[in-house]
Amino acid sequence: MKRIVLSMLAAVCMLAFTACGSADSSSSAPKESQTEAVSQTETALQQSQAEQPSDPSEAEVSEDKQSAPDKTEEQSQAEADSESKASDTIVIYFSATGTTKGVAERIAAVTGADIFELIPAEPYSDADLDWHDDKSRTTIEMNDPAVRPAIANDTVDLSGYTTVYIGYPIWWGDAPRIMSTFVEAHSFDGKTVIPFCTSGSSPIGRSGENLASQAGSGSWLAGGRLDAGISESDIQAWINEMK
Ligand SMILES: Cc1cc2nc3c(=O)[nH]c(=O)nc-3n(C[C@H](O)[C@H](O)[C@H](O)COP(=O)(O)O)c2cc1C
In this structure, are 115 and 21 located in the same domain? Predict the structure, then answer.
């Protein structure tokens, strides 16, 4: 559109100049009609530029700015307060293949708890997890109650928590030895501790009691085995039963 307007204006100028040139081609000073034509061209050009539609994306942005008023100080402060409010509950878990992790995340969602995953210093490979192999790492570890696999990230500070959920998969009817490493490294004084596990089918058995005795502190509840696909409402029901 701009190009068409400019072409037309250029043509008007050419005609004006030609007309003036034929009247007096020897004169170098612009005649009045020439000046008028140039001035009209400039005016039309300015009008044409003014009429150009603005960049639509800019228009949208400015509309957005208008429709999204700035937050009030009170709103910003309320958000900051809710983000900084610490939970008194934490879910700590180890999961080799992701099943316990899923359940732990749902417990944290239902309770509004913080959540912390224990990562082994030496990750478990598929071969390590092969319980059919008498010589696999897990078979060797679970055959020796004194083994304490190192934790890569045990930076968790339990001091601000009054309730601690501790989750793990059942290995050979017990908690993996890495859970013993964890509970022996922390004090659970004054805390309620709730063990939970996932498994192929085995119940939680004595695994929670074994961890309680290794920890030597805390008020340990029986806890329980939770199905891999347990819903949040069933988790809430399980929690209610323990109260
Ligand atoms: C080494 C090993 C031993 C296991 N022993 C048992 C067991 O004794 N009873 C059982 O029901 N499931 C057993 N399982 C299955 C796990 O408990 C089950 O798959 C669990 O949900 C895995 O959790 P994760 O994905 O969080 O690691 C065993 C798995 C492994 C790798």
Answer: no
Please work out whether the CB of residue 99 comes within 6 Å of at least one atom of ligand 1. yes
- 43, 151: one domain: no
Assess whether the C-beta atom of 171 lies below 6 angstroms from ligand 1.
yes
Protein residue whose Cα sits closest to atom 27 of ligand 1: 96
Each residue's pLDDT tens digit, 78-114:
555 555 568 999 999 999 999 999 999 999 999 999 9
Q: Is 167 in the pocket of ligand 1 (CB under 6 A)?
A: no
CB 167 within 8 A of CB 207: no
Measured CA distances, 143 to 57, 177, 196, 203 (Å) = 67, 10, 22, 19
One domain, residues 45 and 94: no
pTM, 2 dp: 0.71
